Structures
1.
Amino acid sequence: MTTHGSNFWVIGGEFGSMNFHKLVEGSAQVKGPFKTRKEAEDAWREVSEENRHRAGVRFSIVEEPHRGTA
């Protein structure tokens, strides 16, 4: 499914505890923008696979809201 006019981002990093509330300073990563969710999912899989041995690292896909012109 493609949402026209939206960008997708992969965000995350290493968290200080397993409740995943606060990133370790300096560990934040942002990848994107991606024009399709599929492209973002591919990037998410890649970065998640690279860090799978690190239990405190987590990444998510977020969609930037479409900003229409008024």
Note: Residues 37-50 form the longest helix (14 residues).
2.
Amino acid sequence: MSVSAQGIPGVPDLTHPVELVHLGSQILKASVLLVFLVIALGIAIALLSFSLRRLPKEQSLFIGEWTLRYSELLRGFQHLALVLILLVVGFFLCSTLSNRYHYWEQAKVAQVALLVAGDKLEQSAPQVRYITKEPYTTTTQVNGKIVKTNETRDVNRFLTLAGSQIQVKLDQIPDVQGRSATYRVDYTADYKVVNQLENINNFIFEVPPPNGYSLLQSYKIERAGTRLQQTNPGDYSFAFRLQPKEETSFRVTYNALGGPRWVYSAEGQLLSNFRLIAIANFAGANFASGIIPNDIKVDRKSTQFSWIFDDNVSVKNPFGVYTNTDPIRNTGIMPRLLLLAPALFLWWILLLYLSIPMSLKNVAIAGGIFFACLLSLTYLARLINAEFAWTLISLILLALSWGLGANFRASLAAFICAIAGAVLPVFGLLVSFSGLTLSLAGLLSAVWLAVLHLYGWYKLHP
């Protein structure tokens, strides 16, 4: 399995049974320990009460005081247990969503990468080769004497193309598996050859098919309207005769599937009287390798790129057309937010405890509201902008938080706590300037608690 398919390493996932059972056993052990501590405290109080049975007055004072404290401890233990349950369940939920969102983002990146990466369909410029005799001298030693021998050997030379008129039409289609896009290429090229040599009239026209194709059909080479036939399978060399100062023309045509890039390579040759027109019949087409076209024409359905070199020019890198896609930004933001969501919930619930009287019912409702809003944000962020989605969800969060208060002032306090402890922190983790937003949320929380408790905005009632 790939790394992206496994999700974020080290983060528990509810869809992984082994991790779930292991963490469940750890939580069960911790819960049993807390229960035993509470029971042990109750037994200790009972033993102390029994030891004071001969002193009725001291026993009644002790039992009354410790019974009240024990009941408060049990009540606090209920709140603590509920908050811990919400944190643990919320952590498992958010870690699972974080893994799922991470996997979805990586799959999206891989899908976009398939549109611009992979094999390319590369057409090389043809070469006109001729063979010439070249003298050379070899030196050998015979019977202690140095003997020089003058001989000749065949050397391959190349004739520069006098002109190239190329037109290629590109259509983008999904491949057979539907995983990426490929190009369907309709290629037509006319090459002009002029014999500028004095004593050479035998030449070989070498025009290989494009590299990287998955399907090649209707591959034809014509000279002056006459189709040339291959002598050997896979051999794309065609011998022809051309007298000095004469000229001839060749036409190369084919249809091919490949891509998702199409480029033309000069193979180190000098290009003269060169014209390449590439018509891309799809959106998002752009020119490759930084060789800027002389002219770009864009309409609603296609883009035409024109490279024109009237004089001789040397082009080192292949140039052509590829599919340009919008950059993928803001990846990893939602997984980070989901992993920090339990801490944000604890921030909010502590503000509520310090601001208004909280019952077990209100704590459970607040936890349900918070994690339900995050769940909605996780899936809405796949469809629309995450900041806009959280703005809409925040309105619902604030409206529901208002109902946590028993009167107008308590409802207003819950409303302010929701802004400082939930809305702003989550929004701060979504935007690029997270530090500033989180600092403002923390400052607002501190100012609110100071105004509430130090200046007596209203009195809390248990």
Note: The CA atoms of residues 120 and 259 lie 4 Å apart.
3.
Amino acid sequence: MIKLFNNFIEKESLCSKSQKILLAVSGGVDSVVLLDLFAKLNYKIAIAHCNFQLRGEESTEDEEFVARLAEHYNVPLYVKKFDTIAHAKANKQSIEMAARELRYQWFDVLLEKKGFDLLATGHHINDSIETFFLNLTRGTGINGLTGIKPKNNRLIRPLLFATREQISKYAKDNNILFRYDQSNDSTQFLRNYIRLQVIPALKKINPSFEQVMERNIQNIKNASAVFNSTIDETKEKLVKEYESSYHIDIELLKQVKHHSIVLFEIISKWGFNAEQTLSILNTIDEQSGKVFYSTTHQLLIDRNSLIIESIIAETSEKWTFANEEELINSPLFNTAEIIVIDNFKINKSKNFACIDYDKLTYPIEIRKWKTGDSFNPLGMKQSKKLSDFFIDKKLNRFDKSKVQVMISDKKIVWIMGMRIDNRFKVNSKTQRVLLLGV
């Protein structure tokens, strides 16, 4: 087992003995065997243990057991207690999802604060097979059927060469003690149901099921490499990246063969699922302005593009400046200065506003635009609603939601980053210019 473990690490280029490795150790057989193998090969290791406080006294006993392991192997130990149930309720998550989120957030903190190079977990072949079926039942593309990766950024899984049975045999042969989590026998969790009910039924059909599935997953990985190469080439043509958003050209997308698969592979990285992909394609011609949401991103069907942006929490925040000093020193502006008109040259960039300072009245306010707002666009004497101005500018829904306006004496002075009001423009009578840049 030690030789197979070492060979797998070398074959997959998982880690080196010069690196510091943090081991996620629950006290179960997989993580304890992982600890034993790393220790016997003299790697620089430490233990991280999560106490999710889900099993009463048993959770405390797990923590105490792992503490004894750390002492036995003479390695550093880090322990964290979590109120997992409260976190799950607050975030409307399953217990499984909450525990996963909590532990990996903490692991990331440990990696940074304590200077670890890598995090190692005890996932094995059976975990990879279970992940295959888990993703299959939830709906996935080809990449979701490739099981668990041996390495994902700083996360490594050095036991992915072994089955659960091989790991248990190693523990027995080497008199390695471990804790057993009774919740592993509960079929209320989908992964447990697959492990306890689905896979045993399939093994009755083929006793070599695990070996066959290992080959199947490897074949799918090979096929996905070819598939991903084609998808990447198509992405280059379809997707344009901007400062804070991604735009997918709708007409070009329609011309692509099997465009539903291509679209799913593009937007799934932002958390959109297969069902949403079909809904987007079904409404792409009729519902410009419709928005779809994943947990982290929003997708807008615009006139010519699908626009993807991160979800930003809405804010009603506004800023009020009582005097000149507050305005000039505000962090809202990249540039803010009052200039005497002599030798002044107007900056015509849309990110700058040149305003007749003496026409302003304090307090000056900056806020998000509202329905019903109107102004006199520069060069025009008549009033225009901002909503109509945005239509003329062909602003999409996302862009409109970010627009802020500068107000003086209940009048819009500047649609920030776009256009000033004609009533506040610099003219031949101007004495002082307020130059603002965003």
Note: The first strand starts at residue 20 and ends at 24.
